[in-house]
Amino acid sequence: MSGKPTCFVVGQSVRRIDALGKVTGEAVYPADIDMDGQLWMKIKYSDRPHARIRAIDTSAAEALPGVVRVFTAADVPVNEYGLVTKDQPVLCGIGSAKPGADIVRCYMDNVALVVAETEAVAAEALKLIRIDYEDLPPIFDPEEAMRAGAPEIQAGIANNIISHYRIRKGDMAAGWAEAEVVIEGEFSTGYQEHAYLQPEAGLGYIDEEGRVTVIVAGQWTHEDQYLIAHALALPEDRVRVIYPAIGGAFGGREDMSVQIVLALAAYHLRRPVKIQWSREESILSHHKRHPIRIRAKWGARRDGKITAIEARVVGDAGAYNYTSTKVLANTNLMVTGPYEVEHIHIDTYTVLTNNIPTGAFRGFGAPQACFAAEGMMNRLSEALGIDPITLRLRNVIQEGSCLSVGTPLPPGVSMPQVIERCAEESYWSKTGETWTRQPTQQPSQPHLRRGIGFACGFKNVGYSFGFPEQSWATIELHGGPEIEQVIVRQAGAEVGQGAHTVFVQMAAEAVGVPLEKVRLIGHDTAETLTSGSASASRLTFMAGNAIRGAAARALEQWKAEERPAKATFQYRPPPTTPYDPMTGKSEPNFAYGYVAEAVEVEIDIETGLIRVLRVVCADDVGRAVNPQLVQGQIEGAVVQALGYAVMEHLISENGRIRNPYLSTYLIPTVLDVPLEVKSVILEYSDPIGPWGARGMAEMPYLPLAPAIAAAVHDAVGVWIDDLPMIPDRVVAALRARGIGAD
Asked: ω before 660 within 30° of 0 (cis)?
């Protein structure tokens, strides 16, 4: 074979390579794996939201028959971890060299580990551990936490503010002077639980080469490996991380759950150790989406041109950073929406509290920003009497536009085309330069109202603000006169999105062989180099470029008669830069994705129940490597965003989650899915994406909540500015306007 691509695999809806195992139940997840002689682990969590541990008595637990060992903070060599800053103890308690490790800062802090011969014995032993606490003053409201004199949660963090981002662009006095209409709004968003199908579970053991090995579900094997090695004070090559099938992630598996504690126990006991969380433990003990409060003020001329935007953003990080500073950096960038505005003043604060930590979740700070920005844009449309499509197109970013941070967008901006296509595919038509929306047909029942809403958004592809971005791939070509087998080593995590299928498609396309000749090796640090995380809509973009580069090098060797041929390639995209601390000026990202959505809702004015009937989502994906998988991502994002917008109400009172069950924390079921989700897949090639592809998995999530809010306003004339828009909030807003029965 010449090596010239003769098989056109990219762009085809080929069947997922993991489909059969998942639909038959043969796929193996961490909880399915057992080893001979394995022990069981249970975790003792904090009983306080904020307290100093003065003593831990484990003697009764250790004396219980069947208990093998109880681990405490004194057993952890380097008692710290964290993706951005290592500010969280692996175990809280005394006897640790980590300053502040004797303090619990939230209810999810780990205090002790019980390892026993059976799970039941381990659970019983937890009840026998006695902890002597000295209570410290807790604080649960981020606004109060920012005030002078508030209780200190992390030593040396002034006013509990772990980041303050500023954007200062233009001249605000000139912007407000030019404005003929000024509107203001306040928005709040709530927690969201990831609710992936597979709760946290894993198995730790010593492999045949003496490596501490953890089988677990995560989003970045090599980051897990690094954090385990750091905590255990081991060289990284003495730690191995393997992912079997992963039952969903959505950002919820970016931070540590059971990885380090399993490794710690296996390292000391030299026996396999297993843990499996219940759904209640999962909801109580992994991070959530950030609750964020946004106060915004926008000014515009009568012709619709936005002249000034001002916003104050406060995000609740909970007790530890996790990825909060990065999430709020994204919110800071996106809170002005996909619009080019000359005068901008933004302040964004990331604040510690004694609530459950918050971190990565699909959209990574952009959904909260989009809710506020598009809410303001839709208010502005009403105030000016300008159709929402027309108003957006007068202000929207386009090729060559500058961002709020004062630098141009990378080439490939398709926001205007996406807005127009979404409008055309939904409820609008265009005559000349005028957009007209079709009338809404109202239900015959007097208690029901229907309305239509529109929103759009954009988000980064890949890591931002100077964080090192890279991805490695290795390609091996085997055969005689022709290539008979292609082995691809790429570590990107398959968290349900179809990434591994896409990797195989891209490798087949790059080498020029049929799909069935490609075999993927991934999910094992012993077999691969780092790919980065399954996050930031980056895997197709980053892995695709790495695979393409490795394939090109391997084909060169093949043509030079090197058989088998093997080549490794590291892809690095254009660099990004962090915010200037005073002005915010930066080159934040190397690529973006663009999306717009129109929705039709039906609202019951008696019960406050919002039913989403139809969603039209136009998403520029650059190139649909596998169109069916793209459609699945759009539909999945819409349903997940629907839950965020109107259903999922996680209640946290004084730092404790009150509804840690799927019977009381409601997520969408098949009966809640819109009657139609119309996926409009657009392909405006990204200049540096593999085959033009740009990441898209998060984008369809972003505009749904503001589009629903606009549709509700269209139906009943009331703005709902707090998420989720659950019935009691909706009823209260309706009754305040005199709508509906008492």
From this structure: no
Distance from C-alpha of 120 to C-alpha of 117, rounded to nearest angstrom:
9
Fold match flag (19-28+470-571 vs 33-136+200-276): no
Element (H, E) at 436: strand 434-437
209, two tokens: 């080469």
Residue type present at position 461: V
CATH architecture, domain defined by 292-464+581-736: 2-Layer Sandwich (3.30)
CA distance 649 to 655: 15
Say what the pLDDT of residue 434 is.
87
d(CA 262, CA 205): 8
- Dihedral over Cα of 75, 233, 80, 204: its sign: negative
Domain boundary assignment for the chain: 19-28+470-571, 33-136+200-276, 292-464+581-736
Burial grade of 433 (CB within 10 A; 0-12, 13-18, 19 or more): exposed
**Which residues, in sequence order, are CB contacts of 245 under 8 Å at separation 6+?**
18, 21, 22, 27, 28, 29, 217, 494
- Phi, psi angles (nearest 5°) of residue 691: 55, 25
Inter-CA distances, 737 with 92, 382, 733, Å: 50, 18, 7
Report which residue type is found at 19: A
Residue whose C-alpha is closest to residue 722's, from 165, 142, 191: 191
Q: How far apart are CA 401 and CA 395, in angstroms?
A: 10
Query: What Å distances lie between residue 40 and 71, 90, 211, 482, CA to CA?
Result: 13, 18, 20, 50
**Domain 33-136+200-276 class, CATH top level:** alpha beta
Kindly state the percentage of the chain with pLDDT values over 70: 99
Q: What is the pLDDT of residue 3?
A: 47
CA nearest 467: which of 376, 389, 577? 577
Q: Per-residue pLDDT tens for 502-561?
A: 999 999 999 999 999 999 999 999 999 999 999 999 999 999 999 999 999 999 999 999
Q: What is the DSSP string of 278-331?
A: -HHHHHHHS-BPPPEEEEEEEEE-TTS-EEEEEEEEEEEEETS-TTHHHHHHHH
Burial status of residue 382 (CB atoms within 10 A of its CB: 0-12, 13-18, 19 or more) = middle
Query: Pairing relation of β-strands 103-104 and 51-57?
Result: antiparallel
Distance CA 101, CA 380 (A): 50
Scanning the structure block, which residue is given the tokens 């060992």? Answer: 69
Distance (Å, rounded) from C-alpha 248 to C-alpha 519? 23
Instruction: Find the helix or strand (DSSP H, E) in which 338 lies.
Output: none
* Residues whose CB falls within 8 Å of the CB of residue 136, separated by 6 or more in sequence, listed in order: 50, 51, 52, 103, 151
Q: DSSP letter at 48? A: S
Dist. CA 163–CA 166, nearest whole Å: 10
End-to-end CA distance of the chain: 77
One-letter amino acid of 193 = E
Give dist(CA 104, CA 655) in Å, integer: 12
With residue 76 as reference, give the H or E element that holds it. Answer: none
Sheet with 201-206, side-by-side order of all strands: 67-71, 110-116, 39-45, 273-276, 201-206, 212-216, 239-242
Architecture of domain 19-28+470-571: 2-Layer Sandwich (3.30)
Confidence of residue 324 (pLDDT cuts 50, 70, 90): very high
b/e code 285-312 from CB counts within 10 Å (16+ = b): bbbbbbbbbbbbbbbbeeebbbbbbbbb
Structure tokens at 58: 């484990």
pLDDT for res 8: 82
- Give pLDDT, residue 740: 86
Q: Per-residue confidence at 673, pLDDT binned at 50, 70, 90?
A: very high
Q: Phi/psi zone of residue 410: left (φ > 0), alpha (ψ -120 to 50 degrees), beta?
A: beta
**Cα separation of 535 and 621, whole Å?**
16
DSSP H or E run through 614: strand 610-620
